Amino acid sequence: TVEVDESLNRENRLKSTCRVNSVEYNNTVYYCVVFIMKVVSYLLTKIQSPLFHGASIHGNHVTKSSSILSIRKFSSSAVTSDETRDLVIIGGGPGGYVAAIKAAQLGLSVSVIEKRGALGGTCLNIGCIPSKALLHSSHLYEETQTTFESHGIIAPNVTIDLPKMMKQKMNSVSGLTKGIEGLFKKNKVKYIKGFGSLVNANEVAVKDLDGNESQDGNIKAKNIMIATGSDVMSLPNVPIDEERIVSSTGALELKQVPEKMIVIGGGVIGLEMGSVWRRLGAEVTVVEYLDRICPSLDAEIGKEFLKILKKQKMKFKLNTKVTSAQVVGDKVELAVESSKGEKETMDADIVLVAIGRKPYTSGLGLEKVGVTLDSKGRIEVDECFRSSVPNIYAIGDVIRGPMLAHKAEDEGIVCVEHIAGGPKPHLNYDAIPGVIYTEPE
Question: Among 224, 180, 197, 146, which Cα is nearest to 43's?
Fold first, then answer.
């Protein structure tokens, strides 16, 4: 047994979360190097903290108490494929890899299956990190065009080397993903590159990155965690080819700055990526179905935000739906219709589809083993993150709640603490920060 001061640990958890997510950055960006430092600091705070956190939180009050918790004994030694692992995690994104490291430090034998071939999930590979890298680079370029001269800095004929900018972005990404692999080795987490799917409640089938049967074979597990994240949503009659009609993934890999870009969707992702390419010289128009941008924002803030973006020469068509899109030569023709029934054809070099994301739950064999999904395709879980199959858990984007990396991380930590014998998980979902990394933030 280990005696822990539950309330103190819970307060430390909340403080560490606030420190990471409330750092103020000068100008506009979540500068990648600083982001890396904060993520590592956050992770170390979490995984080096005492084992369990059990204070109950009600509004702004923390109930202080101490208790004696009995902890199950788990073997952390290496396990071959024909032995049973304490925990198998499908998905190596922010939720999955943080949970894996914490579980290993609690004594569980852990395997992580990741289909991307690199750890870090959407956030590190094709989301948060690369987009913030481009936001920073594009902001620096725009500064040379707008404010340098007023500060007495004369920098004539500044040009963009887009390939070099993209290389800098990828260096940020690769440094982070390799760092996670190092943490896995240090904590004896087994990393398997491939596709995982459920055979039954205690067995996971693995295929390699080429779709063939993996040399690891099927893995037996006492507990399974689904942390597969989310994928981009598409629109009917707007086929994404990642060349002319792109998702956020394709928008991070453009070979040249487009003259005209249309962004379908006035949410966080669309406005951030639209800001990148506007700063680099593109004429950007945002088409939004609703009558406002970022509908989750406070209405007054959203209204002022729209005014600022318009001053930055970003154009908007609100109350407008897209009915079809087709590539004609080196252009994309977009058919749109206003809420009043007025139809129009627009054209652009690049069309970015950014209407949101959906949980990645297909191909996992969930229905086969009896895991219940809700109407939006998310895994239904109880307050302990258990699915309808008791030893199968789920965290992050595949369950209810905002699709944010830091939300998935905390869920992963409290979930594995519970699996290891700790108290019932508790998170304050009213205290999850969110940021739009535009100018202003």
Answer: 180
Q: pLDDT tens digit string along 254-264? A: 999 999 999 99
Q: Which amino acid is at 34?
A: V
Q: Does this model's pTM top 0.70?
A: yes
CA distance linking residue 266 with residue 354, whole number of Å? 8
Q: Which helix (H) or strand (E) holds 264?
A: strand 260-264
Taking each continuous run of H as one helix and of E as one strand, the counts in the chain are 11, 21
Indicate the DSSP class of residue 355.
S
Question: Is the torsion defined by CA of 358, 362, 367, 370 positive or negative?
Answer: negative
- State how far the Cα of 188 lies from the Cα of 320, in Å rounded to an integer: 52
Asked if 227 contacts 394 with a C-beta cutoff of 8 angstroms, the reply is: yes
* Average pLDDT score over residue span 74-79: 40
Q: Residue 35: which pLDDT band, with cuts at 50, 70 and 90?
A: low
What is the band of 31 on the pLDDT scale with cuts at 50, 70, 90? very low
What tens digit of pLDDT does each residue of 366-410 get? 999 999 999 999 999 999 999 999 999 999 999 999 999 999 999
Distances (CA, A) of 266 to 213, 294, 355, 381, 437: 42, 6, 8, 30, 14
Q: Is residue 249 within 8 Å of residue 134, measured between CB atoms?
A: no
Distance CA 291, CA 288 (A): 7
Cβ atoms of residues 401 and 378 within 8 Å: no
CA nearest neighbour of 381 among 359, 362, 363: 359
CA–CA separation, 416 vs 312, rounded Å? 46
The amino acid that residue 289 corresponds to is Y
In sequence order, the β-bridge partners of residue 346 are: 334
Token output for 338: 């206003």
Give φ, ψ of 335 to 5 degrees: -95, 125
